[in-house]
Specification:
The chain has 244 residues and is of the alpha+beta class. The protein contains 4 helices and 10 strands, in the order E-E-E-E-H-E-H-E-E-H-E-E-E-H. The chain binds adenosine-5'-diphosphate (ADP).
């Protein structure tokens, strides 16, 4: 919650980690790093370290969950016990169950689910280290893992949050900004279709601030989308080089 004396922006207008308000954290993305999964991706966004892995499309177990006209997408978001400063119980928390649903719903619109009736795809997200904005970084990585698995997709999904710290609208909040800032607005975007698949808000913003935060988050999503495409290309350039 907001605390008046907490100065998250210094006199030069810079944030605790030296970023400008509209600056993303440094991002590193790798695609196809797990050989046993059908598709995988790894993302580092600031101190966040997150792995996403995909299995499928495959027959649904238990069978009664299968749908006759479309594939089902299942998602498990999980934080490793060592991902935060105080050991987290490995059992799924309410927050992890909610985030699993949020991530699934942000990915579903991007997939041609009707192409594979009676099948399922399982998306596993493992947060190895958390520092704010993990739902967004998880969506960014999981979309790439789906593409890596060769799942037919309408578009990639790129996600990023914006929010308010002190009295400034900022992009890509890290943990401290998330916890003692005033608001957090995570957004996921299918950039080619220009369609939003996730929009949440935690905290209080005026209408004007909300619009500014959403537009800033969308800008962040578009920058992350460019990095996603580079990461996908990098994997296939490597494959080509190995074959030659
Ligand atoms: P998001 O990671 O998408 O921003 P939240 O807003 O729920 O999701 O969480 C913000 C941050 O709080 C997380 O990224 C993580 O750094 C921290 N956090 C979440 N759960 C725990 C926990 N059990 N113990 C310590 N820190 C946590």
């Amino acid at each position: 919650m907001s605390q008046k004396n907490n100065k998250l922006i210094d006199k030069k207008g810079l944030r605790l980690d030296g970023r400008k308000p509209d600056e993303l954290r440094p991002i590193k993305i790798e695609v196809g790093i797990l050989s046993n999964a059908d598709g995988s991706a790894y993302i580092e966004q600031g101190k966040n370290k997150i792995l996403a892995a995909i299995y499928g499309p495959k027959e649904v177990h238990p069978k009664h969950l299968a749908l006759p006209d479309r594939m089902i997408l299942r998602c498990r978001y999980h934080m490793a016990p060592f991902s935060v400063q105080e050991r987290k119980s490995p059992a799924p928390s309410r927050r992890e169950i909610e985030l699993s649903k949020v991530i699934r719903e942000a990915l579903e619109p991007a997939i041609f689910l009707e192409y594979y009736p009676r099948t399922s795809i399982d998306v596993f997200v493992e947060v190895l280290q958390a520092d704010g904005g993990t739902r967004c970084a998880s969506i960014t990585a999981a979309a790439l893992a789906l593409a890596d698995a060769g799942i037919p997709m309408k578009d990639l999904v790129a996600a990023c949050a914006a929010g308010k710290v002190d009295d400034t609208i900022v992009l890509d909040l890290m943990d401290t900004e998330d916890k003692i800032g005033k608001a957090d607005v995570p957004v996921a975007l299918m950039p080619n279709l220009n369609a939003i698949t996730l929009l949440q808000m935690d905290g209080i913003l005026s209408l004007e601030e909300f619009e500014k935060a959403v537009n800033l988050a969308l800008e962040g999503c578009r920058k992350i989308y460019a990095m996603q495409k580079e990461a996908l290309k990098a994997k296939y350039v490597n494959v080509k080089e190995v074959e030659e």
